[in-house]
Each structure stands twice: as C-alpha cells, then as structure tokens.
Amino acid sequence: MNAALALPENHIHLWLCLDASINDPDCLECCERMLDKPEQARRWRFHFPKHRHQFLLTRALVRCVLSCYTDVRPEEWTFIQDAYGKPAIAGPEQDQPLHFNVSHTDGLIVVAVARQGTVGVDVENLRREGSTFELANSFFAVPEREWLRALPSADKPRRFFELWTLKEAYVKARGQGLSIALDSFHFRLDADGGDILFDAADSDPCRWHFWSWSLFGDYRLALAAMSDKANVFQVEVAGAVPALAGDAAGRALGGVLPATSFPIFSPSDMALLGASRLRAYQE
Q1: Global pTM?
Q2: Which residue among 143, 162, 182, 218 is the one 20 to 30 A from 124 at the CA level?
Q3: For the chain, what is the domain count?
Q4: Judging by beta carbons within 10 Å of its beta carbon (0-12, 13-18, 19+), is residue 57 exposed, middle or buried?
Q5: What is the CATH number of the domain that holds 152?
C-alpha cells in the first residue's frame, strides 16, 4: 500500500477525469469490482450506455481518490446520503475527517476533497444544448440578471456559465439542495474574472471562499468552501485521469499522476490555480 497523500486542513484537492477517454476493458472491469450492490443497481438504471459509463467511472474515481489519503481499499468505502441527498462517508471510520464533493458533465468528472466538510464543486460543458438565458431569467437573482443583460452579446454565454457554476457550487457546499432558492443569493464578477463578490441574506459572506476556472477550453469549473476559522485555502489539482499517454499507470484509475504531468495543463495553467480571489461584501 502506498503512503497516504498529505491533505492539510486548509488545503482542497481537485481530481479530474476525462471519462470518455477511458475504455480499457481491464480498467473498466476493475472499476466494476469496486462498486457495491446499490451502486451497481443505480448504474443499470441509466438508459444510455454513455451515462452508465460515466456513473461507473464517477463512483470508482471517488473510491480511488479517497483511498489515496488513507489505507482503506477502494472497495471498502461505504456511503450515506443526508436528508437533502448530499453523499458522505459512512465507513470505515477515520482518525481525521475526510469530505468530498463530486460533479460531472459531458466528458469530465471532478472530485473535490477536503478535511472540512463545507465544500462544493460544479463543472459544466460550455457546449451543452439548452437556453442559458431562460435559466438565468428563471433562477438568477435580480442583480445577476441585470448584469448579464448589460453585457455584450458575445460575452453573455461565458459569463452565464461562470455565474451558474458558482451558484451550483455554493448550493452543493451548503448541502441543503433545492431548499436554497438560486435567487436568494448573488455573485458579482469583475471584468477579467479575478474577483468574485458574494452576498447572501442567510449566510456570512466573510466565511465563504470561491474559485472559478476555465478548463480545456470546453468547461467551466467552480469551487466553494466555507470555514469558521480564518483559513486561507490552498487549492491544488492533485491528479488527473488518464495520465500520460502510454504510461502504464494511466490505464488504471488508481494510478493517477500529478496534474503537472498531465499534458493538457501547461505550467502557466497550474500557476493560475488559486489565483482567483474572494472579496466578501455586505450592502
């Protein structure tokens, strides 16, 4: 068993999986053996093969990622859902808390791992079909709708997904599902995306931290974390799957490599992680 990966209290690790690129039969068979009976049953309830494929890899990725931080084998994890459907670890019991949140979209799975529990992640495929502006008009807060409406037409789709992923990440971090209305809080973004401003009537903005990134040109990723302490979080991409082409480790979901070895990421991309800042405000 490899040494456990260090995860300090103020760190958040992100793990990425390009699920459509994983088709090795041995790898998929290994993933199937990791899933428990309820997960297997859920998998086969999906009608389309690509959705069954992504569910399989999502559950296997969560299990393998969690096992990077402890000596628990991937197939040994058990999970529960709270009253709002947010998943959490049921067992085995850990000496240090370990929390995760997962998001997936067409072609990409993201898992966030932290020692404190209030963390949420959301990723969206920018090429997905559907009327983004109808969603904004139906669910966004008034300041967000007005801000989007005033933007140049060419900028609206990109900025919509920035707002949407931030809002979804925040709701997932709160863990209260649809009981939190999407228009009960709002974000403001500056012109270059460097600062993220946040306000919510029922939550202290100063306790929240947000990040937003563009990935691979086709995806928008957002992360939300809350802390009762004066933490300055450090966000890192801990691993990516598949790894380098031709590398044997890249054929097994458990054999992830650091994202600095992942060819899609350039050194400048990595330097940007954690660069987005939160500036909380209250009106």
Answers
A1: 0.85
A2: 143
A3: 2
A4: buried
A5: 3.90.470.20
